[in-house]
Design a protein that fits this description.
The chain contains seven helices and eleven strands. The chain is an alpha/beta fold and 226 residues long. A hairpin with a 2-residue loop joins strand 8 and strand 9. Helix 5 packs across helix 6. The two termini are 28 Å apart.
């Protein structure tokens, strides 16, 4: 059994308002993506890691990769996240049992959550790490609240999302890249294949906005091992 991990680091991160894509911003002299990479290097089931990067950053990132105990490669991504994941899928080992797909801007994922999601996917075929919703959720119509949703049945879709290789390859083979693809689980759901959930043990912050970057700096200052 082998598990390949795809770390998606090809986005521009425009919502952060920085000229440097968020995954390459340095915190304590290390780009954010390397903190994410550390977690997958520590995950026991992961056999290889493919980091998908924007073309202009491939060489820059390759120069900064650490010496690692498992193969790590950098490949060029596409114009959208889905296209970048597809580029990664085209690169992973053909005989891998499962593929774990993760956002580079989520450096605080717990290693035990990575391993639990992989294990669930190996058992069921597909698994998504999810998080509880803390706030009340409303639907809004023409500027007015029209309904209150049952929060107990709603989860935030996080990453990693892990799939047996044959399932995720089929899902992407049938994907319409002209349409919005919110995440990888969406494509597997469209196949009619059930996606199991794993409850996250941490916040699993995704660095998206400037205040997220401030929080990330504080977290990595206080608890560097996060």
């Amino acid at each position: 059994m082998s598990v390949s991990a795809i770390i998606v680091a090809a986005g521009a991160g425009r919502r952060l308002g920085s000229e440097t894509p968020k995954q390459f911003i340095e915190i304590h002299s290390r780009p954010l993506v390397l903190y994410t990479l550390d977690k997958f290097l520590d995950a026991r089931q992961v056999s290889e890691i493919v980091v998908v990067s924007a073309r202009d950053w491939v060489d820059w990132l390759e120069e900064r990769l650490p010496n690692a105990s498992k193969p790590v490669s950098v490949v060029e991504g596409g114009l959208t996240r889905a296209e970048s994941v597809f580029c990664g899928l085209s690169t992973v080992a053909r005989n891998c049992t499962a593929v774990a797909i993760h956002d580079a801007a989520r450096p605080f994922v717990a290693v035990k959550d990575i391993e639990a999601t992989i294990q669930k996917a190996l058992e069921t075929g597909a698994a998504c790490l999810v998080g509880e919703v803390a706030d009340s959720l409303k639907t809004v119509t023409y500027g007015e609240i029209s309904a209150t949703l049952d929060r107990s049945r709603i989860r935030r879709a996080l990453t990693p999302q892990v799939f047996r290789t044959e399932i995720i390859r089929r899902a992407f083979a049938l994907a319409d890249f002209e349409q919005e693809i919110p995440d990888d689980s969406f494509l597997v759901e469209k196949l009619g294949y059930p996606v199991a959930t794993v409850e996250a043990s941490t916040v699993n912050l995704k660095v998206t906005y400037p205040e997220d970057l401030v929080l990330a700096r504080l977290l990595l200052s206080e608890v560097p091992s996060l």
